[in-house]
């Protein structure tokens, strides 16, 4: 009956724990140690300093809205889109670059990035001839407006009069001519 006595079993367990603690203390172990953090160690290093404004309030300026240009400029530079955007600006601001008189009679067709060549089409052959004589002047205006390495050549095209009509029901004659003005 002694073996099944619950009071005696609890006493033996307490004695076993006390003996184990004494053995650990003799071996040099501490009975009450520090609990090591389980989370990352960076959290327990020194805290970051709080940036404050001159009036002592916490500075939250990183949350302020920014201009779209200030946000996009670094991304444009990082991806190398500068010359592409300059060519797009050139097409959009063509009237401002060359002036209203030339802008009224011409328009940008395309920009070849590989050759750095701008294709411009005129509304009359005579105006295209005049523009070819002014080509150096126009290239310098373009370089001043969008940058020196964007356009190297300017290709000035005559007006597009459409395809030549042919076939059985075609009236023979001189056909379409470039006499727009």
Structure description:
- By secondary structure, this protein is mainly α.
- The chain contains seven helices and three strands.
- It has helices at residues 6-27, 68-79, 82-92, 94-98, 100-105, 125-133, 135-146; strands spanning 106-112, 117-122, 153-157.
- A three-stranded mixed β-sheet has the order 1-2-3.
- Strand 1 (106-112) and strand 2 (117-122) form a beta hairpin.
- The longest helix is centred in the first third of the chain and has 22 residues, at 6-27.
- The protein is elongated, with a radius of gyration of 42 Å.
**Treating each run of at least 4 consecutive H or I residues as one helix, how many helices?**
7
> How much is the radius of gyration in Å?
42 Å
Main beta sheet strand tally, sense and closure: 3 strands, mixed
What distance lies between the first and last C-alpha atoms, to the nearest angstrom? 128 Å
Low-confidence stretches: none
Strand order of the main beta sheet, please?
1-2-3
Count of β-strands: 3
Oligomeric state, counting identical vs distinct chains: single chain
Structural class call reads mainly alpha
Q: Helical content, roughly?
A: 40-55%
- Tell me what portion of residues adopts beta-strand conformation: 5-15%
Core attributes:
single chain, 181 residues, mainly alpha, 3-stranded mixed sheet, 7 helices
């Amino acid at each position: 009956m002694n073996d099944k006595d619950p009071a005696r079993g609890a006493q033996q367990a307490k004695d076993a724990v006390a003996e184990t603690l004494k053995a650990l203390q003799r071996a040099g172990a501490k009975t009450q140690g520090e609990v090591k953090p389980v989370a990352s160690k960076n959290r327990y290093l020194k805290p970051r300093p709080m940036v404050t404004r001159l009036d002592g309030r916490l500075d939250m300026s990183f949350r302020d809205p920014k201009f779209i240009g200030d946000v996009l400029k670094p991304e444009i530079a990082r991806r190398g889109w500068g010359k592409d955007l300059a060519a797009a600006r050139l097409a959009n601001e063509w009237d401002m670059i060359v002036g209203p008189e030339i802008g009224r009679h011409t328009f940008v067709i395309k920009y070849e990035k590989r050759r750095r060549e701008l294709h411009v089409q005129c509304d009359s052959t005579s105006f295209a001839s005049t523009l070819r004589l002014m080509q150096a002047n126009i290239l310098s205006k373009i370089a001043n407006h969008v940058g020196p390495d964007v356009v190297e050549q300017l290709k000035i095209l005559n007006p597009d009069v459409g395809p030549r009509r042919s076939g059985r029901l075609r009236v023979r004659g001189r056909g379409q001519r470039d006499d727009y003005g």
